[in-house]
Amino acid sequence: MMDNGKISPLQLGVAVFMFTLGSTALVMPSIIVSIAKQDAWISILLCITVIIWFVLLWNRLSMRYPNESIVQYSERILGKWLGKMVGVMYVSFFLYLSALVLRNVGDFVTTNVLPQTPTHVVHIIFMLSIMYGAYLGLEVITRSSEVLFPWVIIIFFMTTLMLLKNIDLSNLLPILPDGWLIPVKGIYPFLGFPISELVVFLIIFPFVIQQRKIKRYFTLFAIFATIFGTLIVVISIAVLGVDIAARSIFTVFDVAKEIRVGNFFERVEVLVAIIWIMTIFVKLIFCFYAANLASAQLFKLKNYRITILPYGLFVIALSMLVYHNTAEIRWFTMGAYPLYSLLHGFCIPAILLLISTIRNVK
């Protein structure tokens, strides 16, 4: 059967927060610092305006079709064959995104936590929990996000307090030495990762009760996550300096290594690892769940769970092939990926809304 679960606007907002941080907070700080230097935090704050525009677009589209996902109303707007092509594009995008996120998990764990463990073993173990969560359905997934959410906040502020003596705000100076051009350039990677990726929730919108509150909660928690990300980048630069923060692969983890309380309380970076595994778990499970549900809607399957096993095996295999090393993924994230992600996150929804408005299809 199809998923008949219902979630509240607050649950949606918490899921958006966890999804937005996801692998972004782990991977993106070094990328954004390498572009905008000490003004990287300004680039992230500028993204708030972009997020608001994206949410307005998605909400306007979803309000015209409150009981359907983007895969379903694409056929209504474009016709059967063009609509199905759009649906296939989104299923492919969600599966590819799942593979990218899973690879982020594998690289992080095998590099910093379990260096003797083969990457594919980490992928298989982590993916088993994702497949089980997707099988249980949307309500279980969102409740898991709610349970993990306060722990992410608590551990973040604990580690921040322990880092206060290491913070050197002079590392953030000078501010805007080359004007606004460099911080504006820093927005580009964020357009694809994670802003456009939030289009995943267009599959989830039909399950939200009180749909008129979607825009409010989605925007509020997305902005909250952006401010959270700004604090992470500020702390990273203030503790490590611009050069080290830009070269570090997992900047946040390296920042946590600087925590030392007395001569007995060290290795706190394990707490940071727990935070990002929590958020990455939420991001990956929503991507994978969306791929399965979108496939069921696209091919008129009676049960979305039919594809969980084959898709799970496919994502595990694809995760080993999506890129060869971290240098390649940095190049991809700063180059072609934002365009690929924007196609799904902005271009297609904007075209659908335009055609729907012209044809007055509701």
Question: Notable features of this structure?
Answer:
362 residues, Amino acid/polyamine transporter I, mainly alpha
Q: How big is the Rg?
A: 20 Å
Q: Tell the overall outline.
A: globular
Task: Name the helicity range.
Answer: over 70%
Give the C-level CATH assignment: Mainly Alpha
Taken as a percent bin, the fraction of beta residues is: under 5%
What is the count of helical runs?
16
Biggest β-sheet description: none
Stretches where pLDDT is under 50 for at least 5 consecutive residues are none
Could you give the distance between the termini? 26 Å
N-to-C SSE string, H for helix and E for strand: HHHHHHHHHHHHHHHH
Please give the domain count: 1
Query: What is the average per-residue confidence, as pLDDT, rounded to a whole number?
Result: 89
How many beta-strand elements? 0
Could you tell me the CATH topology label: Amino acid/polyamine transporter I
CATH architecture: Up-down Bundle
Identify the CATH homologous superfamily. Amino acid/polyamine transporter I
Q: How does the helix and strand content classify structurally?
A: mainly alpha
